[in-house]
Amino acid sequence: MSGSISAANVEETLKDFWASRPRRPHDGRKIAGVAAGIAQRYQIDPVIVRVAFVAMALCNGAGLLIYLLGWLLLAQTDDEVSAAEALIGRGRSSTPTALTVLLGLAVLPATGFFIDGGFTMVGGVLLSVGAVYLLHRHRGQLNRPDVPAFAAGEPASTTGTTVGSTAGTMPVSTDEQATGQVTPPAWDPLGAAPFAWDLPEPGAVPEPVVVAPRPVRRRSRVGVATFGVALLVLASSLVAAEYSDWFDARHILGLLVAVLGGGMLLGAFRGGGRGLIWLVVPLSVIGVGLTSIDFDSVESDRIGSNWARPTSVDQVDSRYAVKLGEVDLDLTGLPNSGSVTTKVEVGLGSAQVRVPADADVTVTCGADLGSVRCLDKVSEGKGAREQVTDDGPDGSGGLKIELDVRSEVGEVEVSRG
Fold first, then answer.
1. Could you count the other beta carbons within 10 Å of the beta carbon of residue 18?
2. How many C-beta atoms lie closer than 10 Å to residue 338's C-beta?
3. Which of 131, 280, 285, 307 is deepest in the core (most CB within 10 A)?
4. What pTM does this model have?
5. Helices 118-139 and 97-116 meet at what angle, rounded to 10?
6. Angle formed at CA 139 by CA 134 and CA 144, multiple of 5 degrees
């Protein structure tokens, strides 16, 4: 699989990739075995493949789309066909049909992100496809998977027929089939007991199986050192965030994923660092959410919690906002007179507001993606929005509160105290 790249070569390579595509193993997998299967097929370290998936996931979720397609189109080691092929009746797959349908439904929004994801998403998918093409072109001859006999529709092979009754059978070689004569074993030269010819030779003692001791693996310090560097980067970034707007949540997460990914890549060559995957994956998922959703409407760089308990109308700010975290605003300590107008904004997180039991409240609640509980009204999903005017159990009169509570991604709740 070498030489100049042409349309014929590309087509031949793609056909050969599909015919000998990786199989997802049961051992060594983290989720569905896609990365482990690719690494096993092309004999490379699985950590490198997982790092590549994480890196592509940061490209507006391109790695997630590729992984879902691999889950659907790559069969498991002992399956006849992949989950997608089994769904259309091409063979047997151990993947439950319900899970296959859910994976197919998950591909639909991922494909929508591919269409609307801009250059970053499209470039990530094309880069992933190109990497797989080059990998198969140069290493496709290695470790080509064997198709199980039941998958090829062939019966198990035999080396001869058997003779005897149900009490005992003995294999017959091809030469014996041709001559019609069967040679007795050494312990029965006269052929007096053909019914027991399948028994082993008397006195034969099987040789003991010597199991080699498992070599003691020296613990690598790559994982510990990388984790320490990541903590140092996190602390430095939080300090720098007080002086530079560049160190926002997205950039800090990107720095952490870069450090952890670099440690995993170093561990692929030096040993160790595999446990870092449990930090890289959730941080990458959060990073994808932060980069895929526009938080520019939240004019705040604050990260963490914003708690407020005003006890007078003058103490109520006109706006409470955080980029990442939660806002907890308790207005139940306000007097039963006057007028209050305020806005609560959260980029990623929750917004909770409690109002007095007898206050006259006009509130607008909204979440681009999440759930909304606005006094007695509830809505969930994308673009959840509720608008409520409630004068309380005592009717109109007393403290008047006008609220606008929003979260880009998360939970919004306005309740009476």
1. 10
2. 14
3. 280
4. 0.41
5. 120
6. 125
